[in-house]
Amino acid sequence: MERTQIARVSVADQVAVILRQRILGGELRPGTPLQEVPLAASLGVSRNTMREATRILSLEGLLKRSIHRGIAVAQLSRKDVHEIYHVRRMLEIAAVLAARDRSPELLHDLRAALDQYEKSVRARDWVSAVSHDLLFHSLLIRFHGSKRLEAFHQKLLGELRMGMVLVDRRHDDPGMLIPVHRRLYQLLTAGKLKECATVLARHLDDSEARLAKVMDRHASAEAGQRPARGTSLRSPKVVAENLR
Amino acid sequence: MERTQIARVSVADQVAVILRQRILGGELRPGTPLQEVPLAASLGVSRNTMREATRILSLEGLLKRSIHRGIAVAQLSRKDVHEIYHVRRMLEIAAVLAARDRSPELLHDLRAALDQYEKSVRARDWVSAVSHDLLFHSLLIRFHGSKRLEAFHQKLLGELRMGMVLVDRRHDDPGMLIPVHRRLYQLLTAGKLKECATVLARHLDDSEARLAKVMDRHASAEAGQRPARGTSLRSPKVVAENLR
DNA sequence: ACGGTTCAATTGTTCACCACTTGACAGAGT
DNA sequence: ACTCTGTCAAGTGGTGAACAATTGAACCGT
Fold first, then answer.
1. Which chain A positions have a beta carbon within 8 Å of B90's beta carbon?
2. Which candidate in B148, B153, B155 is best for mutational testing of the A interface (most A CBs within 10 A)?
3. Which DSSP string do the residues of A190-225 spell out, in sequence order?
4. Taking CB atoms and an 8 Å limit, are B10 and A67 in contact across chains?
């Protein structure tokens, strides 16, 4: 029988999904302050429900709550990026090395992610390309056979993606990564796990370096435009000017 | 100046802390159904605040929410235990191997945890003993230098501890683990990381086996007392009988 | 014994309200 | 001009009461 999981999710969860999409999709950029009342109104839910949703996302690390000061989309520092890549290296390499018993379906999923990735790149759909790039890495984690690790890794990728939305795709070619991923897949199916691990390690190093570079460029460009202290969460003046 | 971080936590967070203590301390046993209204009333907070707290704990894995069906203290299966130990092995062993640059303060904290552990065992304070046993392992993770890994590991230990509260301490001697921990500490300070890692691996295997054994015994004992299906979350009959 | 119906209990969600904190602003004092 | 201080509006934290939706036990007729 087709076990179509009936949509049995609370409104708060759905709101969290929507906000997550907007953040990860780059619609809500890091640092953006959010106000409960307008946000709740814009989605047609109550303030309490919105608060539950923001609570979820703040525990995921996508939003940052400062008590009595408001909520803002989280911002990744270069230190955060380095930390996340350190953990990714450990988890993903260990996953590949643990891939002795690789199920056909998992390999099939990897293949599908790879194909979708290439397809998106050819179609110049960068958002979809990044998604399938990261999906490929998520699938690697499944070799561990641990739901908890999968969830944790997914959370890490979510945070990382927040840093990625900043990058200017005109100066960065996601298509470059196609051959590496394809190589990883081939080595994996061939059972050459150690070689696969070393390629993966280099791939992650390279990936981190590219992201760090683009973040540096972004940070220095930003420093010229904004005050050094960063924008405060509250800004009555702006509101007042909008009312005029 | 003394930067005493002023307690700046929301009520919901404090409620979460209290519930966490009760769950981890064994006061609220796995499977126990919780009702929002009485629980909120017992702590003197509103239902909304209590819902925020339960949301936090359910995301931590300590509570399990079934929509419209209520909340219950989560229950660990043997499969969960195995999974958690698999992840622990990976994280903790990697941490030890990464302990080339071991700071004196971290070593000092490890030493302190060790001492406290032994002290608690001598005082027959099992709850405190378990706490410091796990604290020792948490500190190991700090060699990674990653806040995110620390938080994740902490979450794993929290879940694990929920399984531990079931064990009957009369049939299990926590003091047995003292020499192993002491050995780990010695090897670590001596810089014999590889040897330390193998000892740690065996320690974790042993630890898992002991917990699995005691959980099996508990499960079979429970099966004789309760209906096979497990208790349902709602039970109006009981309430009605209490009112008579 | 079986299958459908009723119904009270509980959770999900909304709403209105108040307390408290924050940060901008204006005026006093130097 | 500069700093300090009190004021004030905006916004979040938290409460309590209401209503809607769902569940599952009890009931009922066959």
1. 90, 94, 144
2. B148
3. HT-HHHHHHHHHHHHHHHHHHHHHHHHHHHHHHHHH
4. yes
Rounded distance between C-alpha atoms, residue A26 and residue A98, angstroms: 34
Q: Answer yes or no: pTM beyond 0.85.
A: yes
Closest CB from B59, B94, B146 relative to A56: B59
Nucleotides of D under 7 A from a protein CB: 9-18, 21-26
Pairing of strands B63-66, B33-34: unpaired
Q: At what angle do helices A78-97 and B147-164 cross, to 10 degrees?
A: 50
Q: Residue A56: beta bridge partners?
A: none
What's the first-to-final CA gap in chain B, in angstroms? 62
Profile chain A (244 residues) by mean pLDDT over runs of 10 residues.
Answer: 61 96 92 96 96 96 96 95 97 94 90 94 87 95 96 96 77 77 95 96 94 81 51 51 40
Instruction: Report the distance separating Cα B67 and Cα A180, nearest Å.
Output: 43
Q: Which long-range contacts (CB under 8 A, 24 or more apart) does B8-11 make?
A: B8/A67, B9/A67, B10/A67, B10/B52, B11/B45, B11/B49
